Amino acid sequence: MQRVKQAIYAGMLLLASGLVMASEKHQLLGAWSVDVSKLQQPDPKPRSVTITLSEAGEGHYKMAVDIVDADGTERHADGTFSPDGSATRTQGSLDVDVVAMSMPSSRILVMGAGMAGNPTSSRVFSLSDDGKHMIETIIRHQPDGTPYMRVNTWSPK
Question: Are 21 and 106 in contact (CB under 8 A)?
């Protein structure tokens, strides 16, 4: 009987800690800018890239991406998503029109993206160990199917 009580107590503690985690704000919320000189892409590199992650109410989030191209042209893309992995439409991007997002912890955001019915990339955004940067790992595939990765480091804006 004592073990049953201990098991029930342990379960209640786990449930309570889960509720605390669920109410904890996601640590990637806010605006982040990348050092464009370190982007692993061909020239011309953009002048700036900013990602903003914000709460959108009722358990939803909004991600906006603002890019200033090398020639000064400004582009904006955004989408509102539920972090349950369900697909949702985005607008304004040249290579993403649908995403599925999840937030497995308060420090991680995982995104699968597609365009025109085809997969484009998978991305994992995570808070650095020191809490000062957002690390983006991008997984794409060569035309022959060989995967490759790129890593970008973002700073709070």
Answer: yes
Tokens 């985005």 -> residue: 90
Lateral strand order in the sheet of 48-57: 74-81, 60-68, 48-57, 30-34, 147-156, 134-141, 118-127, 108-115, 98-105, 84-89
Cβ(4)–Cβ(12) below 8 Å: no
Measure the CA–CA gap between 75 and 98, rounded to whole angstroms: 17
User: What is the tens place of the pLDDT at every residue in 103-150?
Assistant: 999 999 999 999 999 999 999 999 999 999 999 999 999 999 999 999
CA separation for the pair 74, 66 (Å, rounded): 7
pLDDT digits (tens, 9 = 90+) for 38-83: 998 889 999 999 999 999 999 999 999 999 999 999 999 999 999 9
Domain boundaries, the chain: 25-156
CATH class of the domain comprising 25-156: mainly beta
Cα-flanking dihedrals φ and ψ of residue 28, to 5°?
-95, 0
